[in-house]
Specification:
The complex is a heterotrimer.
Chain A: E1 2-7, H1 15-22, E2 29-33, H2 41-45, E3 46-63, H3 73-77, H4 99-103, E4 109-124, E5 127-134, H5 142-158, E6 163-167, H6 174-180, E7 185-190, H7 194-207, E8 214-218, H8 225-237, E9 241-245, H9 250-257, H10 273-282
Parallel strand pairs in A: 1-6, 1-7, 2-5, 2-6, 7-8, 8-9
Antiparallel strand pairs in A: 3-4, 4-5
Chain B: E1 28-33, E2 51-56, E3 61-66, H1 76-86, E4 91-94, H2 99-107, E5 111-114, H3 121-129, H4 138-141
Parallel strand pairs in B: 1-4, 4-5
Antiparallel strand pairs in B: 1-2, 2-3
Chain C: E1 2-6, H1 14-24, E2 29-32, E3 46-61, H2 71-75, E4 81-83, E5 88-90, H3 100-104, E6 110-125, E7 130-136, H4 144-152, E8 160-163, H5 170-176, E9 181-186, H6 190-206, E10 209-217, H7 223-230, E11 235-240, H8 243-250, H9 260-274
Parallel strand pairs in C: 1-8, 1-9, 2-7, 2-8, 9-10, 10-11
Antiparallel strand pairs in C: 3-6, 4-5, 6-7
Helix pairs in contact in C: 1-9, 4-5
The chains are: A alpha/beta, B alpha/beta, C alpha/beta.
């Protein structure tokens, strides 16, 4: 089984667009959309949502007001100010430490599993897909991302499929780490802008200790050729390879709007030598 | 290790007492596993593997334990190491471990050796006994290769 | 007025709007609460007045008092404190500073020490305006404290623009708390529409009035306009996509200085956002 993860550091560089574009070239595929804040793959790929399940992430306190003696110990001791003076939970602030339950002198607090999002399965033309969406205000932990990864691996085993393509989370936090642990290759999509380069460096610093082969892809490369050169120099200095440069192409944007996978759409880039060589490398 | 290494005897899951080889010792060796059968595959991950297969050199038996660390929101590596520590594991065979997990394993005096995937659990144990796997030291855990 | 600028999807133009609006408005301060990947500072001309580390508490175990009973490790929900046969190990990065371990230790062997989780930069721009941002150390488990500290030091000012992190996770929720109004920056693509839903929900839950700015406009995609109409969400303004604008952005330049039409867009957006409000 082979896992390829596509990440970006900065949002909006074209990670999902690239992930979508490589999908049609693989046989026997499972797709994992690990961008749990904004799972976008389904917009172009999902033919049918086959499962939607609540996902439980942490435990939050519930209060038995018949037992409560209003000592306010829980309110005073909560490090996250998640319990108000009137002994009500302030949603979004609780971090699930369970300290209040331990402290309550009259056992008026019970911890209960709290749903933090949905975990879903979809049927697509290229194979089964797993994605998830966090409810607003939640801590974006690696747990939900790991769950998407695990479900995808399970699906791949059950259906005897060889490859998993993972659309990752932007950023540099634990959801990115959960996106890439154990994968065979990471593709980092960046753009030739000051912000893009700044964030590229931060994400490379984060993932380089994992010793997984990393390849860089410069998207919208033609908006600033000097910055594209800067990226290539940075990569060379850090023993990384820029595997592909994609020019800015309005037809790619139009294809996405028409809900067409760009590599199957109108853009001539996907008929080019560079693209074909890139696909060959991946397969 | 100082013990005689004899020929590796092929094993089946039907055997209750499993004899990998005639080597005796006192070590408990844990292998990251994707499933709880001996013919199953070693895992590509440490902290979020599904099971640990623990081989006891004294009894010559395998025990599979479910990895309770897998479902942790954070600190899965720490919890996995604690689980192994509580089971008295001396050696861990893993695909790779990060620097933080390595520090925790060291604190539990667990030696770590690195296998390559894909590989079956029984082949991983065999590989370790034949001395084929490099030990993961501080330097290699930090990604220096 | 305290105005939060956010987006569901990354890369729609939050920072572009925040930095240019900040430059246009004379009496506003700017804070960048995207502490994982702050970008506003790349576009502004400023001098750092001070750099303050933000600390969190983490447990330190006194080995002379510790009996290795294991209670601290048992109760820690974050696996940040682990008891071996010989000693107790703390993984500081994972600690949420909840106080549980210290409270359960029967030997009172645990005290708290402080560790830096990141830094806050207070700066003044070349036109003497206030600009602050934060940077979280990579690997740190929670940025909420950093966002809250950043805000507590700047929210005393009457007029603040908040450049928020993308998405609707806990750092964004912490960023918008106390805001009077919000601007969602989106783009006319299916992703722009889909990802807007979650920040709309976040803002509705928080009871904050908001409108939308459509950036990189000009495609034939009407889905987003239909969405705004259907949900009665005001459109504060539109900014057309132009290659020249992308180029200026890529160089880290403020568009308001290079593009008259863009400056007019900013004026329109500012008028819509501030309408009905008195500002000095």
């Amino acid at each position: 089984m082979r896992e390829i993860a596509i990440i970006s550091g900065k949002g909006g560089t074209g990670k999902t667009t690239l992930a979508l574009s490589i999908i049609p070239y693989f046989k026997e595929l499972v797709i994992a959309d690990c961008d749990v804040d904004a799972p976008d793959m389904k917009i172009l790929l999902s033919q049918k949502q086959t499962e939607k399940n609540l996902f439980y992430g942490l435990q939050i306190p519930t209060f038995d007001y018949d037992r409560c003696i209003d000592c306010k110990l829980c309110h005073q001791s909560c490090a996250f100010n998640a319990i108000s003076e009137s002994i009500e939970l302030i949603p979004g602030k609780c971090e699930g430490c369970n300290f209040c339950e331990y402290l309550c002198p009259v056992n008026a607090i019970t911890m209960e599993n709290h749903a933090i999002g949905h975990l879903n399965k979809h049927q697509t033309a290229y194979g089964p897909m797993v994605d998830a969406k966090l409810f607003p205000g939640q801590e974006s932990s690696g747990k939900l991302v790991s769950e998407v990864r695990d479900k995808a691996i399970e699906l791949a085993k059950d259906t005897h499929r060889e490859t998993i393509i993972i659309d990752g989370s932007p950023g540099v936090a634990c959801n990115v780490i959960s996106t890439i642990t154990g994968v065979d290759e990471v593709l980092v999509v960046t753009e030739p802008t000051m912000s893009g380069i700044h964030d590229l460096k931060r994400v490379i610093d984060l993932i380089k200790i994992f010793n997984i082969p990393i390849h860089v892809i410069v998207n919208k490369a033609t908006i600033n050729e000097a910055k594209t050169e800067e990226i290539k120099e940075y990569c060379q200095e850090n023993n990384l390879k820029v595997l592909l440069e994609i020019p800015f192409d309005q037809t790619i944007v139009n294809d996405i709007s028409r809900k067409v996978i760009p590599s199957l759409g109108e853009s001539t880039f996907f008929k080019s030598k560079d693209w074909k060589a890139f696909v060959k490398h991946l397969i | 290790m100082g013990a005689q290494i004899m020929e590796c005897v092929p094993i089946t899951e039907m055997e209750v007492e499993i004899i990998i080889n005639q080597r005796s010792g006192n070590l408990k060796i844990a292998i990251c596993a994707d499933s709880n059968i001996l013919d199953g595959m070693g895992s590509k991950r440490y902290a979020r593997s599904d099971y640990f297969a623990i081989y006891d050199e004294k009894t010559l038996q395998f025990t599979f334990i479910k990895n309770e660390a897998k479902k942790e929101s954070s600190g899965a590596g720490n919890k996995a190491t604690k689980i192994l520590g509580d089971h008295g594991v001396h050696v861990l065979l893993a695909p790779k471990v990060g620097p933080k997990a390595f520090d925790m394993l060291k604190a539990f005096d667990i030696e770590v050796y690195q296998y390559e995937t894909p590989a079956k659990i029984k082949d991983i144990l065999d590989g370790y006994i034949k001395g084929r796997f490099p030990e993961i030291t501080q330097a290699s855990a930090q990604g220096h290769q | 007025m305290k105005i939060a600028i956010l987006s569901g999807k990354g890369g729609t133009g939050k920072t572009t709007l925040a930095t240019n609006l900040f430059t246009y408005l004379e009496d506003y301060a700017l804070i960048d609460t995207d502490i994982e990947e702050p970008n506003s500072h790349l576009f502004l001309d400023f001098t750092i007045q001070d750099k303050t580390p933000v600390y969190k508490d983490y447990p330190v175990v006194d080995p002379n008092r510790c009996t290795l009973c294991g209670k601290c490790g048992e109760h820690c929900n974050f696996n940040a404190i682990i008891v071996t046969a010989k000693k107790v190990i703390v993984s500081e990065d994972l600690c949420h500073s909840c106080g549980f371990c210290k409270a359960v230790c029967p030997e009172k062997a645990i005290t708290y020490a402080k560790k830096s989780i990141g830094d806050i930069y207070h700066t003044k721009t070349s036109s003497e305006k206030d600009f602050s941002y934060g940077l979280l150390n990579t690997g740190e488990v929670s940025g909420v404290v950093l966002v809250e500290t950043l805000k507590s030091e700047t929210f005393a000012m009457p007029n603040v623009l908040i450049d928020c992190p993308p998405g609707a996770a806990c750092t964004t929720a912490a960023s918008i708390e106390g805001a009077d109004k919000a601007i969602i920056v989106s783009e006319p693509t299916p992703f722009g529409v889909s990802d807007m839903d979650i920040v709309v929900e976040l803002l509705n839950n928080a009871g904050i009035d908001f409108g939308v700015v459509i950036n990189k406009a000009g495609s034939a995609d009407t889905e987003i306009y239909d969405y705004l109409e259907k949900n009665h969400i005001p459109l504060y303004g539109e900014i057309l996509y132009k290659a020249s604008r992308a180029r200026h952005y890529s160089k880290g330049e403020l568009l308001i200085y290079h593009d008259e039409a863009f400056k007019e867009n900013i004026k329109t957006i500012a008028a819509h956002v501030l309408e009905g409000e008195h500002h000095a």
